[in-house]
Amino acid sequence: xxxxxxxxxxxxxxxxxxxxxxxMSRRDFEDMLPRYGFSVLVDNEENVQTELDT
Length: 54
Fold this sequence. Notes:
Largest sheet: none
Oligomer: single chain
Number of helices: 4
Helix content: 55-70%
């Protein structure tokens, strides 16, 4: 989890890729990130597009 969270935070993995690797739902993934010191609010392309679509 820590490695995937780090790669996601650094923009090396998208949220979708990270969730698929870990086999987690979006909610579970977002709940896991703060345990490793990362914010759910990472400004990557996927998150920006998700916000624009809502």
